[in-house]
Q: What sequence folds into this?
C-alpha cells in the first residue's frame, strides 16, 4: 500500500507542476493580468496532502524562476498560502457548492493579494515584471505608497484569478474519475452535497 502511494506521489507531483507551468505559459504568452499557476499545487494538496502540495509549488516556482523570470521564486511562500487556504476550504466542505467555491477563491485572492504585496514591496520595490506592474505604476503615480499600490493593483486580478482557479480545480476534481485516487471516497464526500458511493 505504501509503495502504491509513493508511486502515485511520483506521478502526481510532476503532473501538478506541468499543469501549473502550462497555465502560466498561456497567461504569459497572452499577457493576461492573471496567474493561473497554482491549480496543480491545489489539486496535489487535496489529493495527497498539503505537504506534497507545497513541494509541487516549490518545484513550480523554481522551474519558473529558471525558465521565465527569477522573480517567481520569492513568491513561493505566497503560493503556499494560496494552496493551504484552498485545502482548508476543501476540508470545510466549501467545494460541495459552486458558489462557495467562488467565494472561497475570492477570499483566497484577497489574502494572496496582501501576501503578494509584502513580497513585491520589500523584495522588488513594487515591480515584479508581471503585467500587473502597469496598474501598480499608475497607482503610485496617483500618489499611493508602494505597498498600497501593489496591493490595490493585485487585488482585482488576484481575486478573479483565484476564483477562476478554484472553479477549475472544482471542475477537474468533480469530473475526473476520482475512484482511482488514493483518497477517492473522502474526496467524493467533500465534493458532493450528499455522500455518494464511488463509481455511482
A:
Amino acid at each position: 500500500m505504501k509503495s502504491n502511494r509513493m508511486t502515485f506521489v511520483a506521478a502526481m507531483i510532476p503532473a501538478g507542476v506541468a499543469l501549473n507551468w502550462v497555465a502560466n505559459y498561456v497567461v504569459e504568452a497572452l499577457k493576461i493580468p492573471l496567474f493561473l499557476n497554482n491549480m496543480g499545487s491545489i489539486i496535489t494538496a487535496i489529493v495527497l496532502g498539503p505537504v506534497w502540495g507545497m513541494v509541487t509549488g516549490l518545484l513550480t516556482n523554481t522551474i519558473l524562476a529558471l525558465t521565465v523570470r527569477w522573480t517567481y521564486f520569492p513568491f513561493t511562500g505566497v503560493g503556499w498560502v494560496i494552496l493551504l487556504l484552498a485545502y482548508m476550504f476543501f476540508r470545510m466542505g466549501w467545494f460541495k457548492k459552486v458558489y462557495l467555491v467562488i467565494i472561497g477563491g475570492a477570499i483566497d485572492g484577497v489574502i494572496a493579494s496582501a501576501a503578494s504585496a509584502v513580497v513585491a514591496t520589500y523584495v522588488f520595490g513594487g515591480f515584479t515584471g508581471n503585467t500587473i506592474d502597469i496598474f501598480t505604476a499608475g497607482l503610485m503615480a496617483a500618489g499611493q505608497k508602494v505597498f498600497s499600490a501593489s496591493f490595490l493593483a493585485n487585488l482585482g486580478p488576484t481575486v478573479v484569478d483565484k476564483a477562476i482557479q478554484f472553479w477549475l480545480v472544482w471542475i477537474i476534481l468533480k469530473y475526473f474519475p476520482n475512484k482511482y485516487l488514493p483518497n477517492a471516497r473522502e474526496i467524493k464526500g467533500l465534493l458532493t452535497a450528499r455522500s455518494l458511493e464511488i463509481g455511482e
Observations:
- The chain is about 75% helix and 0% strand.
